[in-house]
Here is the input.
Amino acid sequence: SGVLGAEYRFGEHLWIVHPFVGLNVTTRGGVYGYGGFLFDASVIKRFWFTPSLAVGGFHRGGDKDIGSVIEFRSALELSYEFNNRSRLGVRFEHISNAGISNTNPGVENFWVVFSVPTSDLFGK
Here is the structure.
């Protein structure tokens, strides 16, 4: 099924990690709300590598049974940052329940991601 997602990455950080929250909705009525932490590292000028870990709640709707309401997400993202601080990149993620239920097929998602600083959307 197709997926549309939105994520908010907080500007504040805890040590070297940033908290974030997100919501994914599938074309078959599945919903996954999550929160976690990411590490944002500049690899070379204007390119960012962002690994992240999250936990959240999954409502199946008419989508694939992935085994549990509680699901964990690990992701790797590589993006390019433009002059206005917006970014365009790709993300690979794995979602599974880490074996907390008898069924644990997991899912892999590949995303094209575009991020915009909230100050550009809502003002400073």
